[in-house]
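Hi everyone,

Forwarding the result from last night's run.
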Amino acid sequence: MQKLVLPAFLFLSLNTLAQQKPQYSQYMMNNYILNPAISGIEDYTDLKTSYRNQWTDFPGAPVTYYLSGHWAMGKPDRTSSGPRPYISKTIRRTSDPSPVFKGSPRVPGHHGVGFQFISDKIGQSTMNSLGLTYAYHIPLTAAVKLSLGALVGISQYTFSFDNLTVKDNPDPAIYNGKLRAIQPQLNLGAWLYSRNFFLGLSGNNMIFENFNYSVSDSNTPNPYVWLGSTYTQYYVTTGFRQELGEFWSVVPSVLLKRVRQAPLSYDVNIKAMYNNRFWFGASYRRNDAVVGLVGVNINSNLNLSYSYDYTLSGLNDRSKGSHEIVIGLMLHNKQKLLCPQNLW
């Protein structure tokens, strides 16, 4: 009976862990991590790395790392000649050295490419994924563009039996090897944007749902095989930028998240920025957390941001909140921008 109960328990645990995607509090600093259509949206190479420690001091709580990068190809406004990106005539900042006024000719479309590496560990389960992205940005007017993009990659899921203890009649599989699985990944996205608003829609794990875990140790007698599943996750996000005088701007935004067999979730955010250099903000995540955010654009090549989640769920008694740090590099930033023009 022990052998029947234990595999059933692991089957449920592995299914639950595998279908969950990493949580991010600072996705608004890097929407690319949720939507491949953002590939190549800016005039520079955008590299970001992040560390997230969720539910601090809670045993087995999620720890997430990622490294991402994307850049434009064939974008004419990367050069000093030719059409330049549309910028409102009311804005003249040191970070916008050569504004183009309303009525400028529409720039041609351009390509964007990039990569994402994500590592997410929850208890004994680890997910590592690597994806390559492509997007094409289509000008609709002189100020508005539509981008369509895709990510193609693979995810590896691992479940380790290290540090698991079974007192009575332990199953041999508990002490031998690990469970491993490989799953192809396909994400699709669309992003409608201008300098002052954005609207995005994306879906992760669009095709491949099921995969098999297998015991990696061939010496394990009668190795078990478990079925894992990942459900498609949909994201809808929108926001706009409102200028408040010469130096201040605010950006309210919202993110809706939907996954099969789970209730609709949403984040509501507000971000305020001073002189395109210093910013702070707050988020509310439904039935989960209130988040405080702060960041600084140190110079035209480096930015840094930090967030703290105060847990509102039943884990509040055990958790000391969540911490997340994002470091960004803006390479080949020929215009010496302090702040992104299309993602803020």
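The radius of gyration is 22 Å.

Cheers,
N.
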